[in-house]
Amino acid sequence: MAHICYCCMLVYATYHILTVKCIILYMQTLQSEEISKTKNTLAQLEPGRLPFDIFTEVCRLTVTPVLEVVCFRRDDMGKIEVALLKRSADDPNWPNMYHVPGAVITPTDIDAGLEGVVDRICTEKLSIKGVSKPKFIMNELCKVKRGVELAVVFAVETEDKIAGVQLYDVNALPDNLIEGHGAFIAQAIKSFSDK
After folding, report:
1. Residue 49 lies in a domain
2. Same domain, 72 and 139
3. Which conformational region is residue 40 in: left (phi greater than 0), alpha (psi within -120 to 50 degrees), or beta?
4. Confidence grade of residue 23 (pLDDT, cut at 50, 70, 90)
5. Does an H or E element contain 135, and which?
């Protein structure tokens, strides 16, 4: 009787081992099929800005290169003001929060280079062209709500007020500033002050 139970247990154990191996093999096949399908879908996209849902997942999985521009001016009294933009109330990561203007660096930026990205940000987000030559400030690896970003920070100075953009005294920045942006501003102002 004990011999039969041992044989039954051996068959039962072998059956479970084979079942687990089949499940693992099935999962690997499914995973390979899903990866292949995802790869084929991504291959249809042109380099540049991604559809938002895909962009969000890519940001979660990789390091996203971003360029931030600290744009400031000195008023008539010499007080330094910085341009900040406010995110919309329905922004998925930073609703109603202030930030220095910035953009994701995309493959389509290769010809213009980083200074071209600075120009794009100043033109598209601030509607200004009369700025100083962009000055590189720092690179910073940042953990943010949508993932990890490599922030390349530049600063520019303008003499003009910027229509439609709120300027803030660098010593009285809003409390609801996106994480890390206060440090970008402080480093940029210090860098320009040291010249």
Report:
1. no
2. yes
3. alpha
4. low
5. strand 135-144
Beta pairing, strands 63-74 & 147-157 = parallel
Q: What is the residue whose two structure tokens read 């530049």?
A: 154
At 166-183, the pLDDT tens digits run 899 999 999 999 999 999
Report residue 153 as tokens.
């920070």
- DSSP-H helix ranges across 44-194: 52-61, 113-124, 181-193
Q: Give the number of domains in the chain.
A: 2
Q: Are residues 102 and 31 in the same domain?
A: no
User: Rounded distance, CA 195 to CA 177, Å?
Assistant: 27
Do residues 143 and 101 both lie within one domain? yes
Q: What is the DSSP string of 137-155?
A: EEEEEEEETTEEEEEEEEE
Q: What is the pTM of this model?
A: 0.80
Q: Based on the number of CB atoms within 10 Å of its own CB, is 129 exposed (0-12), middle (13-18) or buried (19 or more)?
A: exposed
List the domain range (segments joined by +) for residue 35.
1-44
Question: Both 40 and 79 in a single domain?
Answer: no
Asked, for residue 83, whether it belongs to a domain, the answer is: yes
Do 147 and 66 touch, CB atoms closer than 8 A?
Answer: no
Q: Please, which pLDDT band fits residue 36 given cuts at 50, 70 and 90?
A: confident
Q: Which token pair is 110? A: 């290769």
